Structures
1.
Amino acid sequence: MVKKINIAYIIDQLGTGGTERQLKLLIDNLDQNKFEASLFLLRGEKKHPLKPDNAKIHLLNINSLISFDGLLKLYKLSRLLKKRKFQIVQTFFQDSAIAGVLAGKMAGVKRIVVSVRDMLFWAKPVSLRVYQIAMKMSDRILVNSKSVKEKIRPLCGNKRIQIIYNGIFTGKEFQKNKKAKDALKEEFNIGNLPIVVLVSNCNRKVKRVDLLIECIPHVIENIPAFFLIVGDGWMRPFFEERVTELKFGKYVKFTGLRNDVENILAGADMALNTSDSEGFSNSVMEAMRAGLPVIATDVSGNKELVQDGITGLLFKQGDVDDLRVKILSLLKNREFADKLGENGKLSIEKRFDVNIIMQQYMNLYESLIDLR
């Protein structure tokens, strides 16, 4: 019987973001004959909608790493890692990187992997310096795009950085269809207007939901369309107030958090990404998988996913006028829009299907253990 590779995944806490969804996909699709996974949460709730099904989950209740209680629990984590003979520790987010590296080193874990999955837009000098130290103490840094790799390269010295892109399930069940469209029209009383979707949280200014809000009036004065903004956050009331000020409320709906984003995309005609910073966008991948034409900001992460004029369109970062022009071009030329959507779907299936990505992860883990 082949001995399983024992992996400890460590994350700050479970939320609703792309990293958490990718972590669940990773753990739930590991070959359980070869790998045994455990998930350690620094804080938060074990019974979260995005908790993996194929892992033992441990809640550490570490609210602050720079406290006596935090250091004590970090020591207990190291003892647990050593007792259960974990061979690999993989971390997600900054606090877990610090905790995972320190506890892993104390426990004598053979391989420590630090995952970096965004462009560090949030980082301040002090926190970035601490993160840098954690990365340098790891055995491998794992990123999800070339853009992230180039961003962190100056921070890591000669440390090896490896790219494994986000994975996604593909298949006909995710593709746009009349049943899903009819359901959207009925739920939101849309009528026969084309449906444009933006999937984005409303917690971060970098997501630039405001850009779309300012763009919509200039679109609908030329071609009426209905805009669904899927997501929630503290900025949502301000966006809704701005919609009221601009008097186009009948053309836009904030759906809040939804557990059926796949169905919403399957009923839409077009998808947008307006963010000023993307490492590698799950929402863009999901829209392309559905066969939707995508218009995304021309930031580096999106450029790796969307080929301008082939699998989607790119618009100039922060440029309302360019966004308006691109949206109108696809609303006017539906044949071209459909071609972009079909090309995008094929690209996702060829490059990012979950089976392709999972094999890359398993190859990584096996190669790390072979380095002993």
2.
Amino acid sequence: MNNLCADIGYHSLIKHGEQLCGDHVVITHQGENSTVVVLADGLGSGVKANILSTLTSTIISTMMAANMNIEDCVKTIAATLPVCSERGVAYSTFTIIRLVDNEEAEIIQYDNPHVILLRNSKNFEIPTTVINIDGKDIYHSRIALHENDIFIAVSDGAIHAGVGTSLNFGWQRDDIISFMETFYDVGFTAKTLTTILLDECNKLYGGEPGDDTSAVTIRIRKREPMNLIIGPPENRDDCSKMMALFFSKEGKHIVCGGTTSSIAADFLRKPLKPQLNFFDKEIPPTAEIEGVDLVTEGIITINKVLIYAQNYLENNESYTEWSYKKDGASLIARLLFEEATDINFFVGRAINPAHQNPDLPINFNIKMRLIDELALCLQKMGKRIKVSYF
């Protein structure tokens, strides 16, 4: 077993004038290291397309996760989908990317734009064979995974972007490849790469997409552990134990909270050096301790990180803030969202007397809730999360 993992991000633009998206993405996990990703594009747009794509992606992902063959999947879809009364056909195009043990990708495509693979900063043409199932040409590929591979799957709304307006023939697949190659070495997450791609599609559409437009990005990378500690332990005698466990963990270390950073400094026998730079007037400044990768304030900073995390899972518009700013919340966001794959939280249960002031909007329960919600958001991003309480 290798040390690779998959960072997966997806998002959709809804056709202008519609309330429901005709594309649908489903991600199904087969154990810890195998994943099935399905992008389905329903015929037409609106409610009908939404139903077609939802049924297609759900059926395929369930059957593929159960290791059923693609021929059975296609026949089941053909027998299940309702027939469109206007066109007399019933289908949804689809792209399937199955990651097997994070070692190999199996790609199965029907009528969607072909999957793009960026490898070593450039487009890499994926070897493909054609299988005919019930009169449908299904494109099938198998390819070994390499570290830093980036797979991009799109619905045809992406290659139609700009047709008849900014571009005569739309945004061709080669244009998408050239555009995304420029971001290969930046280190953006899969979700951020997806956001950048769809932002460009939206611009080409003049802010009014003429078709449902979806993108799924899969970034293959090595596992990267990260550790965050916040709050002193409930029993003060456990300070050394908590810190010893925290600093024994592999990966970078983030210390949050004034009292917690003082305890960490004492444990490491290094001075705590506060910084006076307010990069964001709403976020308290950071500090420095030799041997610690990042030292920040506690609750206010973590609350901002949670807001960024919630937005990341929606439209990710906030990435334009946290991706470059130097305040504590933005620095934590970059470490947790972009760098980390496995995150260990060490959470102290001690009650901070300063938080018991009834005039302050912070109390012990709120602190616990913030950590729980942040951990859940990170889990939804595909991170492995472990929370330990002291």
3.
Amino acid sequence: MKHTVLRGYQPQAVLSYFEDLCAIPHGSYNEAGAAAYLCAFAEAHGLAYRCDAMHNVLICKPASPGYENAPVVMLQGHTDMVCVKRADSAHDFTADGLRLIVEDGWIRADGTTLGGDDGIAVAMMLAILDDDTLAHPALECLFTVQEEVGLGGAAGFDYTGIRAKLLFNLDSEEDGVCTVSCAGGVRCDMERPVTWEECRMASAQIAVRGLKGGHSGAEIHMPRGNAHRIVGAILAALAQRYPYRIVSLTGGNMDNAIPRDCTAVIAFAQEDGAELLAMLGALCAEQQAMLSRDDRTEGRVVCTSGDTVCRCMSEADTAALLGLLCLTPNGIVTMCEDMPGLVESSCNMGVLCTGEDSVTLGFLARASVEARKEEIRTRLLLCARTFGAEMHCSGEYPGWAYDRDSAAMARYVRVYQRLWGKAPRVEAIHAGLECGLMKHAVLGLDPISIGPNMRDIHTPEERIEIDSIRRVYETVCAMLAEKD
């Protein structure tokens, strides 16, 4: 493929492969093109590989001379990306390649997510597989799919025959940090049936736009608003003074992303119009003033009057949906006592969608302690039952407990200290990682997770630092050459 934007930057091999991947649409559930590219790469390089029906790809490379008896290492990352774009972007994630931009040593995309999470891991693995000068043990490079929508690829992959003892997952977002534990999670989708009633009422739209958003695990502790909850707070306050009916609720597109945008349309009596709209404007202004520093740069909370509507939800449906919007758990639920600053459990209301006969709410509950995850699931279930919704849970994945005797952790710390003259940080994260699933699937597998500096992942502001890509790549290569 033609490389233009990243030409001349180092490590060139890694960045060339990254630019290749960025030219291929590869959102979650649309990884077939990336899988075909990986299989063609393996065939061109004479490497053994297999690709399953989900489009997970495993590429294996024999040990270099002198490393035949070293423990087999798995390198792993995922090919899918979160597809989020600015409201004014015409980008089609199913057909268009990403438009890359380099600014001040960082790579970003034009108006869309970049997919550095986790395309940079794919690129690093391909560069390593392509380089016959590197010293390394036998390698099993696993490229998984559907990570961003519930770790589906890692859960569905057949690990029969995997020989790896060490796993270097390349899906972290900060150079010089070794992740050694992560949270488990479960997706909880509520569906609340609605009854439509004919009416002839005035309408208004409440819209929250342009919040910072972000990853619902890694950034759940940041002072960033959830657009759905802001709309819920406005509607709850309005209900204290004026009766109204909900016409639609829409916002968010991923339950693992803090929603940036939400729109509600309500219907109300014509005679309440002027006073209701005045109160609505005041409530929006109040919420605008309460936006955090992160959100207020581009965030807007606005209301506009609309046309007369002829269909709205029933009074009971409106009350029930307001309850679900405002009373379900959201944000940090508990903090970890053993690791100060670490979120122990959380819940994110990520998706709102009004269909023909129901409203769907999508949640992601996370916890490093299994009992905490069950507490959140129970609270969500009680809310669903209280307000007449059905709840279905899916995509559950285990956490990954800290192992103080981890050989993978010790190797990383030792190599990083030698290369860069300082000790790395060793920490746990609240986000889910495929490491937890793989550790449970492969007996005796010892994982760590590392990666280059990324910022604002899962948002159109996502970017990745070029120099940190070089440092991480050199660190991985040195780790492979290391003999314990």
